[in-house]
Amino acid sequence: MRTIDFVILAIYAVAIFALAQWVSRDKGGHRKDSTDYFLAGRALPWWAIGASLIAANISAEQIIGMSGSGYALGLAIASYEWMAALTLLIVGKFFLPIFLKNNISTMPQFLEQRYGPSVRNVMAVFWLVLYVFVNLTSILWLGSIAIHTVTGVDQMTALVIIGVFALAYQLWGGLKAVALTDIVQVALLITGGLIIVFLSLNKIGHGDVLAGFHQLTVQFPEKFDMILSKDNPHYKDLPGLSVLFGGLWVMNVSYWGFNQYIIQRALGAKDIAEAQKGIALAAYLKLLMPVIVVLPGIAALVLVPGLAKPDQAYPEMMKLLPPGVLGLVFAALVAAIVASLAAKINSIATIFTLDVYAKIRTGSSERHLVAVGRVTAIAAVIVGIAMAKPLLGKAEQAFQFIQDFTGFFTPGIVVIFMLGLFWKRATTASALVAAIGGAALSGAFFVADKMGVFVIPFMNRVGLVFLLTLAAAILVSLVAPQKKEVNVVSLEGVSYKTTTGFNIAGLGVIVILVALYATWW
Questions:
Q1: Which of 87, 94, 67, 35 is nearest to 353 (CA)?
Q2: Of 340, 14, 409, 349, which Cα lies nearest the Cα of 172?
Q3: Which positions ≥6 away from 187 have C-beta within 8 Å?
């Protein structure tokens, strides 16, 4: 990087930090309470919700990790993004109306309201462990790889810098500081991503972007198969039709519907219509993401072939950028890392404070809870920095590592929530069976696969465990009905009717998805 690149990066860092503090400032002598800090006062506009959903989602594991997967296995990895667009519409139409009608603040709170405190306690601990030791560490590690590769800064130093900056950026303002600045972060992310795609395809096509893309499809046709056949060496990562009809649905529904650091943005909406407009915006941005995060990895096959590790693809592509442009694209990557880190830090603080601490220390003042949230955020970042290298230092494809690990738990999560939302007879025991049994089954299949006893692609494993866990939870509910009544979530007054605008937007997403899969089947 040249001086101009560092100047651009410095301008971004100062500006985004100042903006975060300004938009989340206390007005008229008002002191932040827990609703202000953790849910932005339930007043987020649709554009902030849509942008923040993407900013929380797209980070180092997407940009670095999915570019690496694009390099290794091609466009098929885009199914994670494109099928997520459809999943978002389902979440907006069927899940959000229930959550907002019941005034839900956190996912563990919903579980307590539906099943009782035991399920809440189990899942709150699970999410805290997952967010700190998988999500936080993966973003820190992959982000530090990018910074080290482009700037030459020591990787561990880079890791500490981005962790501390993301912490400081949101520490005072909470969710409002994150969500109301994410429109800037996402605009920068998209701009930077499109620049690197344009320049790389332009170079491959010798001055013609479309010719560059065409050359990629001709030179590497196997990298443009969306549905992999069984003879493909990467079939185990993306097993054919399972990306359309199998385990990927379980992964996506869990992530977009029941994941605190994602759904928290929509829970902060001022009403259901505003939340659904934000969801629609996020769905269209998800359709665009593979252009930004997958194509650079495929282009790297031509421009920087023979990489030792696939995850080096995007940082190596950034080295091809001229001064000034490199600074802008690098600032966009840092923006994605910081925004996603801030989102996860805030959600860790939210779950620990509202679902663990506040249940133990009942009667705590609002001011005290906000302070606990800030201390929790600091502790989470310290642990994440310490554990990043031990957990991810030897991973070949970090994105696949994340999917494999979370796939242990997502089947049970989806069963618990789907039955809790839509089946009144689901019991506390059935939820615990789903949570513990789902993880145990996943572990058993994983070990059997490694031993060669029962070899199965992880996505098919997720689908199979979901079906077995669902059957077990239903059986337990029927054989042993709930003895002690719990507060069943109210569906009274919940409307699944959506606006004409949302319906048109949803139809547009479906038409685009059909066209994409028909083109590159």
A1: 35
A2: 349
A3: 51
Q: What is the number of alpha carbons within 13 Å of residue 293 lying toward its C-beta?
A: 32
- 340 class by beta-carbon count within 10 Å (0-12 exposed, 13-18 middle, 19+ buried): buried
By CB neighbour count within 10 A (0-12 exposed, 13-18 middle, 19+ buried), where does 157 fall?
Answer: exposed
Contact 138, 390 (CB under 8 A): no
In this prediction the pTM is 0.86
Lookup result for tokens 């109306």? 97
Residue located via tokens 């505003």: 274
Beta-carbon contacts of 120 under 8 Å, excluding residues fewer than 6 positions away, are 108, 109, 111, 112, 355
Instruction: Please report, as a single letter, which amino acid is at residue 9.
Output: L
Nearest to 8 by CA among 326, 337, 341, 338: 326
CA-based nearest residue to 249, from 124, 414, 425, 77: 414
The runs of H, that is alpha helices, within 205-304 are 209-219, 242-245, 247-258, 260-267, 272-293, 295-303
Q: pLDDT (tens digit, 9 = 90+) per residue, 2-32?
A: 889 889 889 988 988 888 888 777 776 666 6
Q: How far apart are CA 167 and CA 81, in angstroms?
A: 27
Token pair for 486: 């719990």
Handedness of CA 128, 251, 340, 364 (dihedral sign): negative
Crossing angle (nearest 10°) for helices 209-219 and 295-303: 80
3-state DSSP assignment of residue 497:
coil
For 337-365, how does the pLDDT look when each residue is reduced to its tens digit (9 = 90+)? 888 888 889 889 999 998 889 888 888 88
- Residues 6 or more apart whose CB falls under 8 angstroms from that of 493 comprise 101
- Residue 318's pLDDT is 82
Q: Which of 348, 356, 350 is nearest to 121 (CA)?
A: 356
Could you report how far apart the first and last alpha carbons of the chain are, in Å?
40
Report the b/e string of 464-486 with b at 16+ CB within 10 A: bbbebbbebbbebbeeeebeeee
Nearest alpha-carbon partner for 185 in 165, 157, 159: 165
Instruction: Check if the beta carbon of residue 19 is closer than 8 Å to that of residue 181.
Output: yes
Instruction: Kindly write down the DSSP assignment for every residue of 188-228, as one continuous string.
Output: HHHHHHHHHHHHHHHHHTTS-HHHHHHHHHHH-GGGG-SS-
Q: Determine if residue 41 is left, alpha or beta; phi over 0 gives left, psi from -120 to 50 gives alpha, anything else beta.
A: left
Compute and round to an integer the Cα radius of gyration of the chain.
22
Residues of the chain with confidence (pLDDT) below 50: none
Encode 172-197: b = buried (16+ Cβ within 10 Å), e = exposed: bbbbbbbbbbbbbbbebbbebbbbbb
Q: Where does residue 164 rank: exposed (0-12), middle (13-18), buried (19+ CB within 10 A)? A: middle
